[in-house]
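> @MW can you paste both from yesterday?
MW: sure, first one:
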Amino acid sequence: MAAIDYATLAEVEAYSGVDFSLGIGPTDVQIGTMITNASRIVDTYARKTIAHDVVPTFTEHFDVYTNMAHLVLKNRPVVSVTSLVEVDDDGSETTWTESRLRSGTTDTFWIEDGDAGIVRFMDKFTGNIKQFLKFVYVAGRTTPTSEAKMATILLVVRQAGRAAMNDDNCTDRIKEFWRRLIDDSAKELKDQLDLVKGAAETTAATFGMKGGY
């Protein structure tokens, strides 16, 4: 499992209107390195890796408390729950059933909102128990969010522009083109990074609900 790039050379060229193979800035290889670096910068704003090459599997343990009817999984979006087991004091495990229907047992749950990581239980708990539930689940993305992709493109364009402007072989006309593109993209980059940070802050606030790991 590894982090991926959130944009392609073609997407950067489409936004900037530049064919980097013509020598109007960094080379294609240099742009590829910039894309990787920019993708990790976006992850820093998000406070997590936004997308992987393979959607990972996670294991979380939760305490339960009286009247608890739901919990929030840390990693999201939740794709599926592999298993939910009840862990007894002696270490033995009882598997719960994923279902919205009562089927002769109250040990049932369902994913209420995969994007928010919310899991609900058929019945509320009646006591406080430590490390009572163990979730094994699949969560994450194999493609970046739209704001992560756009922020990556903008970061690369601006870095490419600065590189071109510092190149003594670059003509004044081309430097002026890059200067205008850098100036014009400033607000757009801020807006996209604010969206990335906003999503991270929403996640942190939701995860802060009582009953988290």
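MW: second:
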Amino acid sequence: MGADPIAEVERHAQGKARSVAGMADDRPVLGVDTEVVLDGRVYGKPANSAEAEAMLEALAGKTHEVISGLCVLTPGWEELDHAVTRVSFRRLTPRELGLHVASEEWRERAGGYAIQGLGAALVERIEGDYLNVVGLPAALLVSVLADRFPGVYGYG
């Protein structure tokens, strides 16, 4: 299994934000990292079509979590948090798996799918922030900004 997926995505998001912070001219920087997790196993970006098919077959008919770490970094403060969305795939036939893999949409996609594309056809239900599954935990980002800048991003 390895490291805790939440700690990993937060660490990666923080690393991404910090890696560009020096080039940002004192502007806020956003870092995000997303992983797909099923039964404690992390499904990253598949390296090839066989790995993509194996990932999708493992996710088929089950509910997995999409976990994103988010880091907002400014010269004065840093906010590090995460969001979790539960995604249920419907059962998939071998033909459907083959067609999805042949589409090559799995490339550079955690878990081998893109919910905003052809991967939407794999999904039966989601619980939580849809945009988190796309790759940006928008509800979490708005919450962080509303807490830090009440009256600007929030209603305070």
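> thanks! The chain has a mean pLDDT of 93.
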